[in-house]
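Forum > Structural Biology > Help requests

Title: Can anyone predict the 3D structure of Nitroreductase family deazaflavin-dependent oxidoreductase?

Hi all, first post here. I have the sequence for Nitroreductase family deazaflavin-dependent oxidoreductase but no way to get a structure on my laptop. I'd be grateful if someone could post the structure tokens.
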Amino acid sequence: MLFGKEHVKRYQETDGEEGHEWQGTVTLLLTTTGRRSGEPRTTPLIYQKEGDDHLIVASNGGADEPPLWYRNLEAEPEVRVQVKGDRFTARARTATPEEKPAFWRKMTAVWPAYDEYQQKTDREIPVVVLERV
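Reply #1:
Sure, ran it for you. Structure tokens for Nitroreductase family deazaflavin-dependent oxidoreductase below:
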């Protein structure tokens, strides 16, 4: 997470006036359903637009395990997304091997540390496509 619960709270309360812009890039709020708890879990994540879709990266800072939100969306791909004041339902999917190189370049252009994260782990870090439903 970027700066945790306070980021989520301020983003939600201000429709992203606080929290959308973060350290020179932009963030959205992703709400997944906990795969064990069934509870909603909201995480601020760096994103980029790809047509009508939004791209996010399941980097977990280069850890060998994927982030919990990624495990949650693998179990339940229907998610809620907030971009500024726009709240919508989306279907999350991992980018295909054909899509990933271009999407990865798009994401590292706004957050170069993703390349460093990939070097820290043998796990292939996925790019996730959020398709509005």
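The first strand starts at residue 21 and ends at 22. The chain has one domain: 4-132.
Shout if anything looks off.
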